[in-house]
Amino acid sequence: MIVVLLTLFVIALALLLLSLRALSSTGVPVRASSPEAIDAALDLLALRDGERLVDLGCGFGRALRAAHRRADVECLGIELNPFAAAGAWVLRSRRTRVRWGDFRHADLKEFQAVFCYLMPRFLERNADWLEKALAPGTRVAAVDFPVPGWTPETVRLVGPLRQPIRLYVIGRHRHPPPESQGL
Ligand SMILES: C[S@@+](CC[C@H](N)C(=O)[O-])C[C@H]1O[C@@H](n2cnc3c(N)ncnc32)[C@H](O)[C@@H]1O
User: Fold this and answer.
1) Minimal-distance CA residue to ligand 1 atom 12
2) How many CA atoms lie within 13 A of 51 on its CB side?
3) How many CB atoms within 10 Å of residue 117?
4) Ligand 1 midpoint to CA 182 (Å)
5) pTM of structure
6) Largest CA-CA distance found in the chain, in angstroms, rounded
7) What CATH number is attached to the domain comprising 37?
8) What percent of the chain has pLDDT over 90?
9) Cα(first)–Cα(last) distance of the chain, in Å?
10) What domain range is 86 assigned to?
11) Atom of ligand 1 nearest to the CA of 143
12) In the 8-state DSSP scheme, what is residue 157?
């Protein structure tokens, strides 16, 4: 009995330490988007059957489950926090994969749609990486915070706090295009 309890304690402690490490390395807490924000983001993404959607930092996977109710899409959630990743995995719907890890190590070129709710400092440090990681034409819905240097196609404001949801399309997200800046 003592051995079982000790094992559970060690596992819980390890998960806690890994969660703290995830938070300190990204500065992004596990905070679920509101249902209204997810609805607006999915409206803007206008998912079509057969497309692939990735949630960058999927938390407990709420957006992935909502996406499935909209269209017959293939979903991937990538999450660094082990508790959240495990929760998203347990609650996942059909045709949804959940991966525990850092999405900056994933190949994202196969996705037509991206959902993200990430913090300003993180977006500032990773905007260039994200731009290179995605294929031209990829639609990106960003909840709350803008991707610095990118121009949205559309901004929708939701809820009483008028929370902004932005839609970017890779290839048209730099306005003016970088080569014409400063001319
Ligand atoms: C604000 S929460 C949003 C959760 C979910 N996308 C939603 O909107 O309900 C952001 C999540 O991104 C995760 N995250 C941040 N940086 C990450 C990275 N580089 N790789 C994987 N997950 C990351 C955090 O652990 C956190 O759970």
Assistant:
1) 57
2) 20
3) 25
4) 35
5) 0.91
6) 73
7) 3.40.50.150
8) 77
9) 73
10) 2-180
11) 8
12) E
In the reported structure, the alpha carbon of residue 57 is separated from the centroid of ligand 1 by a whole-number distance in angstroms of 3
CA nearest ligand 1 atom 1, residue: 31
Q: Which two tokens stand for residue 2?
A: 């003592």
Mean predicted lDDT score pLDDT of the chain = 92
Q: Where are the beta strands (DSSP E) in 49-150?
A: 52-56, 74-79, 96-100, 113-116, 139-143
Q: What is the Cα–Cα distance from 74 to 177, expressed in whole angstroms?
A: 32
Test site for ligand 1: of 36, 65, 81, 83, most ligand atoms within 8 A of the Cβ: 81
Kindly write down the DSSP assignment for every residue of 13-77, as one continuous string: HHHHHHHHHHHHHH-----PPPHHHHHHHHHHHT--TT-EEEEES-TTSHHHHHHHHHS--EEEE
In whole angstroms, give the CA distance from residue 147 to residue 18.
27
Give the pLDDT confidence of 14-29 residue by residue, as tens digits: 888 888 888 877 887 8
Domain count within the chain: 1
When computed from its CA atoms, the radius of gyration of the chain, rounded to whole angstroms, is 17
